[in-house]
Amino acid sequence: MNDWLDLEKQCAECKRCALWENRKNAVIGRGNKSADFMLIGEAPGEEEDRQGRAFVGKAGQLLSMALSAMGIEDDKYYICNVIKCRPQNNRTPYEEEIESCMPYLDKQIDMVKPKVIVLLGNTAAVSLIKKNIRITQQRGTWDVYKGIPVMMTYHPAALLRDESKKIDMWRDLKNAWKKLQQMS
Ligand code: URA
């Protein structure tokens, strides 16, 4: 547990990139810290920055509803972001920001020890898989990070802009969950 407190303190005091200047809160993650199922998004939005909790805005609510409809309640997963501080106007994080913040995410993955990871959107996929990834083409496919199977899918914010993506995302989440059930 001390490791989590250390991480929270480090993130709250972090000045590795310029994003600290405008943050209200560093956003670490939420959910079950020993879950087998982990989801990783991009960066906190306005509401997350305000509350200091991951995925509590519109996109997060949509995702929680989808997961809950599949029987995956909040206590069955851990969810966090690649970047812990909000980029202004929700712009895509810069490469240097991602590089500065990755050690925190790696630490989280080491502590949670998930058996399956879902990467939500392009930034998460590019940051962890380090390939020329286009989520529109790669979604629904598997890769591996630190020996852990990772499924790539859309970011829930993309679904708010384009409802037609919902079916594919639902399918990807279900497949990721199914893989976990088959492993245990
Ligand atoms: N988008 C993200 O990627 N993460 C959040 O926590 C909220 C919106």
**Bound ligand species:** uracil
Q: Estimate the helix proportion, in percent.
A: 40-55%
Largest beta sheet: strand ordering: 1-3-2-4-6-5
Fourth CATH level, the homologous superfamily? Uracil-DNA glycosylase-like domain
What composes the largest sheet? 6 strands, mixed
What can you tell me about this protein's structure?
By secondary structure, the protein is α/β, with parallel strands linked by helices. It has a single domain (4-183), classed as Uracil-DNA Glycosylase, subunit E, CATH 3.40.470. The chain contains eight helices and six strands. The protein has helices spanning 2-13, 46-51, 58-69, 95-112, 122-129, 135-138, 156-161, 166-183, and strands at residues 29-31, 37-41, 77-81, 116-120, 142-145, 148-153. The protein has a six-stranded mixed sheet, sandwiched between helices. β5 and β6 (148-153) form a beta hairpin. α1 (2-13) packs antiparallel against α4. The longest helix is centred in the middle third of the chain and has 18 residues, at 95-112. The mean pLDDT is 97. The structure holds uracil. Residues 41-45, 48, 54-55, 57, 59-60, 81, 157 line the site of uracil.
